[in-house]
Amino acid sequence: MKTPLHYQLSEYDCGPTSVLNAMSFLFEREQIPPEILRNVMLYCLDCHGLDGTAGKLGTSASAMMFLSNWLDNFGKVGILPISSRYLSGEMVYLGSSSSVNDALQRGGVAVVRLFTDEWHYILMTGIDGENIYAFDPYYQTEPFEQEDIALVTDKPFSHNRIIPARYFNSTKESLYAFAGTENREAVLIFNEDTKITAEDTVEYFI
Questions:
Q1: Mean pLDDT of 57-65
Q2: Max Cα separation, the chain?
Q3: Cβ–Cβ contacts within 10 Å for residue 177, how many?
Q4: Distance between CA atoms of 81 and 78, rounded to whole angstroms?
């Protein structure tokens, strides 16, 4: 049985929430071992706030990279059919030759760092033409001022936003932008049992 994706509980836990949502999207509830849940929370929320409080600056890129490598090794030992790959810098973009596009087209997901009104993690779960289907863990009820961004309320197992892909590649610190290459990172995650082969995918041009 699949479970609905969930929202972050605080102002800080968008990173681990998005990774756990990736697990919920890719795997049945009965498949997910407790070690995944424990370690996602253990490795994330590693940045200290200006007052020295642990977790108040969320999750670092190094923590996400470590978590991605741990998930990939977790799959290699055969406990769960999972694989993961960490991307950063110029490798994080949307386009016909993008690894992010490829993952979404083949049934995988991408946990990406981007800008909203501050740095934030969301989960990308699908792609359709020039739009990205995503689950933003920050709870919102009011529609966006940007009329081409859809707030979705009836797809709890897959997405709560439909966002035109053109927003993501912006180099500015604007809504849903990857922004400058020095800030870009993505964790690609697959269920190896449901992963679509490259030969079976339809190529999308963005």
A1: 88
A2: 52
A3: 19
A4: 7
pLDDT band at 69 (very low <50, low <70, confident <90, very high): very high
Q: Sheet holding 119-128: strands in order across?
A: 82-88, 185-191, 109-115, 119-128, 131-135, 161-164, 150-151
Q: Are 2 and 28 a contacting pair, CB within 8 Å?
A: yes
Residue at 46: amino acid letter: D
Mention every residue, 6+ apart, whose C-beta is less than 8 A from residue 13: 44, 45, 55, 58, 137
Model confidence pTM above 0.90: yes
| Close Cβ partners of 41 (under 8 Å, ≥ 6 residues apart) | 16
Q: What is the pLDDT of residues 125-143, one digit of tens each?
A: 999 989 999 999 999 999 9
CA 203 distance to own-chain centroid:
21
Q: State the CB neighbour count (10 A cutoff) for residue 181.
A: 13
The values of phi and psi at residue 38, to 5°, are: -60, -45
